[in-house]
């Protein structure tokens, strides 16, 4: 069998396994984060998590397939390892960049939600609060 074909097979096996492992890890650990971002809505968090995993698979498997071709024939074991290291290194970088992009976007959404929760006033816009009659925070009573 040609060493180029062996390089393709090893590249595909490792790339697919890495993509599946990263997607499962992100999915399992991202559920809690998504539930917080989505204010505890577990069903919505699960749906968004599933959609993110599907998108992750599509983009990464598409990239792995497009990056499969080899310009030069692999003639010896050294060239085989060099070709695999370059291809797998690029796949790992793409996986990492996608992960960081997802975390960045979800963190921005989470921050916005936290800021919105903090801006809600304790009393409705038409409500009144009573001033305390006594205490260290109350203004002193007029002397007269």
From TrEMBL:
The keyword Transmembrane applies. Residues 120-144 are annotated as: Disordered. The chain crosses the membrane at residues 6-26, 47-68, 88-107. Keywords: Membrane, Transmembrane, Transmembrane helix. This is Integral membrane protein. It comes from Streptomyces exfoliatus (Streptomyces hydrogenans).
